[in-house]
Amino acid sequence: MCTSFRGCTVKEAHEDDLIAELKPALLPRLYGSSGCETWSVRFSPDGSYFAWSMGYGIVKVLPWPLTSKDSAEAGCSEEKTLNCGQMVWALAFGPCRPTRMDVLHQNARDHELLLATGLNNGAIQVWVVSTGNLRFTLTGHEAPVRDLVFTPNGSLTLVSASRDKTLRIWNLAKKGSSPHVLRGPNYWVFRCSMSPDSSAIASVCNLDSKVYLWSLRSYTFMRHLTYDHERTMASCDFSQDGALLAVASYHSTTGWWLDLWDPYTADLLTRVEDCEVCAYRSDNLLTSLSFSPVSLQLAFKDYRALQIWDMERDKLVTNTDHSRAGGVCCAFHPQGGVIATGCRDGQVKFWRVPQLVPSLRHQCRVALRFSVSTYQVEALPLPKKILEYLTYRDIPKQKIIYCKEHCC
């Protein structure tokens, strides 16, 4: 069944784990032409909305689950079309729902839901989701805004990463206030991620073979996570307890790597590599990754497939989307169960994620590690195996992800 919206089509699919598919009304002019890409997809913090940068400066905000055809024809759809006037690189809903009840900030429910859009001209537009109206525009970046993220603590603090080699921290609760500017990288800042306790920011640059860690409390640089070999950095994301930082990178001749770091100690814990049997590894670039907000699952999208690694069980639970459509982004639903991927041709696909209940011991680890650093854990008088588990030192040191063609 196909459900028609203004400017897009929702297709309910029946292939493997594919749940639905969004296709833009404006198709690519030519194969490989720019402007039509879906560079960002996002679910709202409560999971009730989905935002999609569908190319050509247009952003669609749709109610989730996707509205049925009957509801759309009756005028009940809460769909909004935002005309940003520029290519949209980044999206972020805010404020987020506080992950802990003892946060000092005003509860996010007291604020209306906003959507920030990062544009090609360096501006950031902030929209009111309920009305689809533009609230205000933030200026200051001198190049495209490549990534946006609201702090997880429920405040109206927005972090932006730009090709002008800076990150900026905006307080949207104070009208007209100047942002804090974080400088240091010598290359375009591609991605940024916020720790779950809102204390640290991780960022990666396109040609800089290291990860930058910044303090959100003092607005200062803290440390680098440094690689030995030259590589192009693609993405980064914190786990739900902040004890792991996943970093995606690749090299034009050897393919991609996915590394898991301890952000407290700067120790490299695990290296995941692309299929070593494939003859064309250099053509398969890792474009995005995302930790599940509800379990120890890590999704990553390369040119070959969308894969989800269940780290607790050390196995792939999803290996799908075997096409060359060129997926460039992915995002989990906040309650899990669904992941969305965006493609270079402007499409969005929704995939079913296996609902695996985390073990009780992992839930205890998450509760502890959310507010306790690696150094504090290591100082506890606990058996070695328990300490290794709490600090994620028990996961495999190296792992190779074989493609569908070469897996055993």
Strand-helix topology:
Elements: E1 2-5, E2 8-12, E3 18-24, E4 41-43, E5 49-53, E6 58-63, H1 69-73, E7 80-83, E8 88-94, E9 114-119, E10 124-128, E11 133-138, E12 145-150, E13 157-162, E14 166-171, E15 180-183, E16 189-194, E17 200-205, E18 210-215, E19 220-226, E20 232-238, E21 245-251, E22 255-262, E23 267-273, E24 286-291, E25 297-302, E26 306-310, E27 315-320, E28 327-332, E29 338-343, E30 348-352, H2 360-369, H3 374-378, H4 384-390, E31 398-400
Explained architecture:
This is SOCS box domain-containing protein. Pfam families: SOCS_box, WD40. With 408 residues, the protein is mostly beta strands. It has one domain (2-400): 7 Propeller (Methylamine Dehydrogenase, Chain H). Helix content is 7%, strand content 43%. The strands form 7 sheets. A 6-stranded antiparallel β-sheet has the order 1-2-3-30-29-28, with no helix packed on it. It has a 5-stranded mixed β-sheet with strand order 20-21-22-23-31, with no helix packed on it. The chain starts with a strand and ends in an 8-residue tail after the last strand. Mean pLDDT is 86; it is low at 1-7, 10-14, 70-76 and 101-109.
